[in-house]
Design brief:
Blueprint (H helix, E strand, L loop, with lengths): L1 H5 L4 H21 L1 H4 L4 H9 L5 H11 L3 H31 L1 H19 L13 H29 L15 H32 L42 E5 L5 E3 L1 H6 L3 E8 L10 E8 L2 H5 L10 E6 L4 E5 L9 E3 L1 E2 L2 E2 L9 E3 L12 E7 L21 E4 L6 E3 L4 E9 L5 E7 L7 E2 L1 E2 L9 E8 L4 E11 L21 E7 L1
Parallel strand pairs: 1-11, 13-20
Antiparallel strand pairs: 1-2, 3-4, 4-8, 5-6, 5-11, 7-10, 8-9, 12-14, 14-18, 15-16, 15-19, 17-18, 19-20
Helix pairs in contact: 2-6, 2-8, 2-9, 4-6, 6-7, 7-8, 8-9
Length: 513
């Protein structure tokens, strides 16, 4: 028996078996993504790791990777998970030799399920279809259990075929070529099955993903007082955005309240509805950027939503949680800001899935990181939770900085001398409003006032025009700046988007011939 125990499967076969088992795990985990609504582990891996990436590094990654960032992270996580499981299988093979197949397989399943549950516990409440927090966690635990069981079963099959663990079960051991060849054949077959499953599932998930619309700004053709819903910018931490089932969705209000409440969509629709025209801007919107849009939002005031629960004491913050696992905190008094609503409708229609159906926060004067979509819980507390992105080092307040941009002047553009040119653009100052816009064509040495279009909302952007009598030939440095409703001019010094949004003036070089 000692000689038998020393006989090991060839290292190449062990590695091949581990890779095959990892592929089966990934395939099953991806396969369960749609029916259960539970984010796959590669998606969950991103949610676990992203809050620990310093904001400065994260900002550089956003700039350098662009739309390829999410696919790269997803693919890397997929491969990393498969390799980690492959390593676990090599350990399992040794345990099977010592303990026997059944005890080792039971240990593999139990340890794998518990370890993964603990590693991903903080994000197990994410589910694209909704449901209570407990229900979402149970579904995630079931998802992990099925995936680990498939991997453990595959490991049992592959290791058992080559005789590992046989000596513990008093079976004759045949470590010869036929068993090795059989093991290689079975491992290759499982690898093909797992690989094919991964490819099929990934193709399906790509169709459901937000890769076709996330991170793209408002196109020039859609610029105007109100942005068409189809052109409204979207920024999301997710690869696949939630498609919430309103029938099982609820909004929980708890914490420092007299009566904890669980509200349905119908309950919210029964409250008085108001309109809030507000511009939303991503904190990653750079100087002259386009990650900004304006809509007519409709829904109950946030304070009207909280009123039936009755605030107990004087909580300082409201902790907000979303279906997709996103979380943040805002000061309670901000919920009473004019225009602060729980939006149920957008531009006259129910919220689209990508914009937070069935309910989202609209909080004027704050960057998009505070405008939570797919809201599912409001917790009133004196111990605020550091937000998902704030953990990286982004601004906690998320206050919009005054911003302005040329819309029809581009760097390097050529104009004809002696003709009038209508310069246009827009400015935004959060909930402070835009009071004035000035344009310079000599790099800020002198300024002229632009004509402002009418105010559509104190919380929205404002468009401007200026007729430029284009002078003699030469190169001109055009610059624009805005003054907010408090009387403060836009900051002139340049700052990158990290950590509190960009600042600086939009400048373009124009050539006149």
């Amino acid at each position: 028996m000692t000689d038998q125990r020393r006989r090991r499967r060839p290292t190449a076969l062990v590695l091949l078996s581990g890779l095959a088992v990892g592929a089966i795990f990934d395939a099953v985990n991806l396969l369960l993504r749609v029916p259960l609504g539970v984010p796959s582990l590669p998606e969950a891996m991103s949610d676990v790791l992203v809050p620990f990436i310093p904001a400065s590094v994260f900002g550089r990654l956003l700039s350098s990777l662009g739309p390829y960032g999410k696919p790269i992270v997803f693919a890397s996580s997929l491969v990393g998970i498969a390799l980690a499981i492959g390593v676990a299988v090599t350990v399992y093979e040794r345990l099977a030799t010592r303990w026997g197949l059944i005890p080792a397989t039971t240990a593999l399943f139990g340890a794998g399920w518990v370890l993964l549950s603990l590693l991903f516990w903080t994000v197990l409440d994410a589910n694209g279809y909704g449901g209570t927090s407990a229900m979402r966690r149970l579904q995630a635990l079931a998802d992990l259990g099925i995936s680990v069981a498939a991997a453990a079963g595959s490991a049992l099959l592959l290791v058992g075929l080559t005789g590992a663990g046989a000596e513990r079960e008093s079976r004759p051991v045949d470590p010869g070529r036929r068993r090795v060849v059989g093991g290689v054949g079975a491992a290759l077959a499982l690898l093909v099955v797992g690989g094919t499953g991964i490819v099929v599932c990934v193709r399906q998930l790509v169709k459901l993903s937000n890769l076709g619309y996330e991170g793209y700004g408002t196109p020039a053709s859609a610029l105007g007082p109100i942005t068409p819903t189809k052109d409204f910018y979207v920024v999301s931490k997710n690869l696949i955005d939630p498609t919430v089932d309103a029938a099982r969705w609820t909004l929980v209000i708890e914490g420092q309240v007299n009566r904890p409440l669980t509200l349905t969509l119908a309950d919210l629709q029964a409250l008085p509805q108001v309109e809030s025209i507000a511009t939303l801007e991503c904190i990653s919107n750079g100087v002259g950027g386009s990650l900004m849009s304006t809509a007519r939002w409709e829904g109950p005031r946030l304070m009207d939503v909280l009123a039936p629960a009755g605030v107990s004491g004087e909580p300082s913050h409201a902790e907000l949680s979303a279906i997709d696992g996103y979380y943040d905190s805002v000061q309670v008094e901000e919920l009473a800001t004019p225009g602060a609503i729980l939006a149920l409708r957008m531009n006259g229609e129910p919220l689209p899935d990508r914009h937070g159906y069935p309910a989202r926060i609209v909080l004027p004067g704050r960057y998009g990181e505070k405008q939570m979509k797919w809201l599912t819980r409001i917790l009133l507390t004196d111990n605020p939770r550091t937000g998902f992105y704030q953990r990286q080092g982004w601004s906690e307040a998320g206050t919009v900085r005054t911003w302005s941009r040329f819309d029809n002047l581009r760097d390097g553009q050529r104009l004809v001398a002696g003709r009038d040119y209508l310069v246009s653009g827009h400015a935004f100052a959060g909930n402070r409003g835009v009071a004035a816009v000035q344009v310079s064509t000599d790099n800020g040495a002198s300024w002229v006032d632009a004509r402002l279009q009418e105010v559509i909302s104190q919380n929205a952007w404002r468009y401007f025009e200026w007729t430029w009598p284009v002078p003699s030939t030469g190169r001109y440095e055009a610059v624009v700046r805005a003054r907010d409703g408090s009387g403060a001019w836009q900051e002139t010094s340049y700052e990158d988007i990290v950590p509190k949004g960009s600042s600086g003036l939009h400048r373009v070089s124009v050539y006149v011939a």
